Amino acid sequence: MALLEHPQVGPAQNHIDGIWRHGPVSERRETFDPATGKILGHYDPGTVDLMDEAIAAARRAFDETAWASAPRLRAEVLLKLAARLSADHERLATLNAYENGKSFIQAKNEVATAISEAKYYAGLARSMTGRMMEPEPGCYSLISREPMGVAGIIVPWNAPVTLLLRSLAAALAAGCTAVVKPAPQTPLINAAVIQHLVAITEIPDGVVNSINDGGPAVGERLVASSDVDVISFTGSSAVGKRIMAAAAPTLKRVSLELGGKTPSIIFDDADLDKAISELARASLVNSGQQCVAASRFLVHRNVLDDFADGMMQRLRSVPVGPGYDTDNLVGAIIDRPNRDRLLGWLDRCADDGDILLRGETLDERYPGGAFLTPSLVLVSSTEALTVQEELFGPIITLEPFADEDEALAKAHATAYGLAASVFTRELDRSLRMARRLRAGTVWLNTHGKLIAEAEMEGHRESGIGRLHGADAIGEFQQTKHIYLPFGQS
Ligand code: NAD
């Protein structure tokens, strides 16, 4: 057992216009270690007034500094950020494992992914181009892509480093200034990353601001403000719908990366050992609290028993415990209320199907901790709420199918369309299924790989807009046509 030491960090403050702002000590809020339930640190909550100041600072920085028209500067800042995060990789991963509860290896991968985002968007910042046409002799049309202005970036707790950078790096590369609103569960790791960014001397004050959570009114102000031009939100579909409605009065652009209920389809010709090992890992990433976690196993009837036996063996043997003990591969649920919500779902699963493997709390071993070991539930009806709802935890359904059409019908039976995976040895079938699946990402004989270079778009109620890849830059840009009659006489 290797227990990593908690990196001591001060209270997470708000950052506005180049200055860290602390509130009254009496108003400080606590952040908790999900593995023990004990206080981990403190943060100064955001307020509507602080949010207004941050938006005003971002507006000024956009209108009055060179940032919006300095792509080389933006690339340099993002490269410096990548270098700073790399130099602090272990400490950031440890802090993430403590505050979010995920295993250290997953926390480390998360920071590595964030570094990759920063480097990728640094490159794109220098290679954005427009178009030029001459539709009639001597008449020139220049089509340029301009940064939208102020970007509001709202981040969930489940991957607080990667998801911050996935939006923020693209927004900064495009030339926007930003106001970040992290989740209330993960203010310490958010502040640690923002510290690296704002410490880069070349970045003008006000380009990046960060306002902690302080209740719904703080995020709502960011969405409603007429000085904010685009909202990049990652979170649940329910909140995404509220954000879209709240953005309507100002007609601001919204990019919504929302929930999922990701099916994995396993055919009877698949390499079962490989499928089981891939999917055990992919279903338990971040204790199943990941938008693209494999949460539904759709398995051909011919191999249902073999798959179920092999999977249960795997799920039982995964070491679960505090993420900062490097022996553990699966960490804690984000907090006790969410762990207890999942226990409620397990009670309900008994009505929906057969619980083949029932998850256990580890309360005796880790009193105060929010642990739940994996569960596997055999369900036949897609109408079961266990199938319909995003449970966001280590409860996975097992659903039999007889042929491709039934597999697709079952895969499409929920409102979500974030991702899917297919396991088969037949190339034709794998590509046919990939084409027919209504999902923004499809993995073949693997599950869960997301890379900075490849666009990610939630279909159906999993979202609107694209992050990752070159298209993500477009989420933070608008188009301008400049018409120029020239050289006609
Ligand atoms: P959430 O929707 O509860 O909260 C997300 C963020 O929105 C938090 O910062 C929260 O404080 C803020 N928020 C809540 N209400 C708001 C409002 N009215 N106005 C403005 N901001 C508001 O989600 P969560 O529990 O933090 O995260 C889990 C969810 O995120 C899951 O549904 C998961 O699938 C989804 N998710 C999606 C992706 C993706 O790429 N599609 C990635 C990660 C997580």
Automatic annotation (TrEMBL):
Signal sequence, start to end: none
Protein's UniProt keywords contain Magnesium: no
Highest taxon listed in the record's lineage: Bacteria
Pfam family for this entry, one: Aldedh
Keyword Iron-sulfur: no
Entry's family note: Belongs to the aldehyde dehydrogenase family.
Keywords: Oxidoreductase
InterPro entries hit by this protein: Ald_DH/histidinol_DH, Ald_DH_C, Ald_DH_CS_CYS, Ald_DH_N, Aldehyde_DH_dom
Entry's transmembrane regions: none
Domain Aldehyde dehydrogenase span(s) in chain numbering: 27-482
Protein name according to UniProt: Aldehyde dehydrogenase
UniProt GO molecular function: oxidoreductase activity, acting on the aldehyde or oxo group of donors, NAD or NADP as acceptor
Stored PANTHER family: ALDEHYDE DEHYDROGENASE-RELATED (PTHR11699)
